[in-house]
Amino acid sequence: MRYFSYLFFLFYIVFFSATSSFSQTKAVSINYNVKLESIEQQLFHVRTEIKNLSQDKVTVSLPVWTPGWYTIENYGKNILKFKIVNSKGDPVTYQRTLKQTWEVATKGQETIVIDFDYRATILALNQAKISQDFAFFTGTQLFLQVGGYRNNPVTVQFDTPNNWNIISALKETSDPKVFTATDYDTLVDSPTQMGKFDLTRFEVDGKPHYFIATPAGVFSQEKTEIFVNMLKKMALAHKEFFKDLPYEKYLYFYFFTRAESNAGGALEHNNSFVAFAPNGSSASPDALIGTASHEFFHIWNVKRIRPVEMWPYDYSRENESPLLWVSEGFTSYFGPLALYRSGIYDQKTFLNILSNLVTNIENNEAHSYISPAESSASTWLGYDTSVAFEISYYTTGANLGSLLDLAILHDTNGEIGLDEVMRTLYKEHYNKNKGFSTNDLLEIINKITKHDYKEFFQKYVWGTEGFPYEKFYSYAGFSIKRNQTNTPVLGIVPFINDKGEISISEVLLNSPAAKAGLQRGDVLLLVDDLEPQRRLGQVFEYLATKLDQNVKIRFRRGGEEKNTNLKVGSQEVTRYEINEIQQPSPEQLKIRAAWLQTIPKANKQSGN
Fold it and tell me: Is the pLDDT score of 445 beyond 60?
């Protein structure tokens, strides 16, 4: 009895001593305030307040890039009037040790407050912009990372004009101008928009989704209703891959205007994506849904299932990885596959997309010299600008996704496909808080199929051997047909200038462009009614219907906009078609049924 009492006494002393000691050490608190300082001067004022410090020094830094857009932007160049004070307003000593890193002397300072203005002049996927009607940023531009406290929860308060609305991927609180994030990575991966915009709320699987259209009124209510219904079906099809939607809410930010830099198109985030689209009058739901499906699959692939080289992100430098053929390529495969499974695309449309992948690859000589893994690792050399000799890991990776899916289905007798590989990566890597390597991916495929895919990787991932399409597509009872066809020729070498516009770097002698009077340095604005900026693929498809016909080219030379008529030329290329074979075997039909399955009708109805 005395022994028990003694143990109890020791327990009491130890427990309450520990509790008392713990209560005296407060957790470091990080709070941000973002104020719309000046609409005219396009200035945010950002305040970072760090409380409960007890160390001699702390390091703060600003990212140099935005994950998903593989270019160095050096956001620190937009900072003005940087200063640090303590809780009494007295200056605190600091040194700028790197281009976007500051070391702060915090000995004796429990609280420091960091203030700066940020000039926001560019509307783009990886930039910040303040205009007369709205303001937008993604997080990497404004929020300082506090060294050693990356995983601390943070609070953000916005100070905006009373007539400006706020929509953010950050978590709401009871105060409409105050939001929270669980950690720094969530904070800088959460786009925020203020001002005037159209907002449509809908539910999928009981979770709120928001379609944000800017400028307000540009995308009609009729188109919005059609597009929202498509987004519902799309989201449910993606849910079928992983059996869950891993977010509390999801936001679709759409700007129906040109990006003001080469960062146009679309960019994924943890629970949102941002996209640039043609102006509302010419934009259609059918044309928008393909990009939406691609970005939505990124919820899992690259935002959560991430290459080991990007786990965690290093915001201070390039994060090279040989696995973007998986992160972007598989996404480019599963995006249209989800639209097929949802019923938005029919089989012909889906197979045409795969056929175009083959055509693109087989007509690009660079595939004989550059592997998908090499292309992935070198993307930082020219992610959003043209380089002399390259392949697309989007295209090649999507093609590899299709071939791997068919090979895995074949080796498992139609029971398991690439879906299961992605689910395994999600469970074994993201859920265990780690990235994946090429060897991890290879081991998962080998384990699922009970076959060794090392030779496949050596030939087609690390190597440049030609793809045996007939072999893989025959597994599902399809054949490859080759057709000689004419494709459009303009006779220009385009490039993306620093404003994100399509400029002409070279006009070929005696070409259609030369005969139309186009010159080096001209900026292409319209091809008939199509904007070529970040949509060269759509323009190319349109021009294929205009061979030997005139199209109207609107361009800018110097500061003057001009028009000219151009007669579209042509050249012969090999196009590839994926067709069903006659009299497929039962084994082929089984694999085809597993590959081209659709989601159950009951699931299609669960979007509200």
Answer: yes
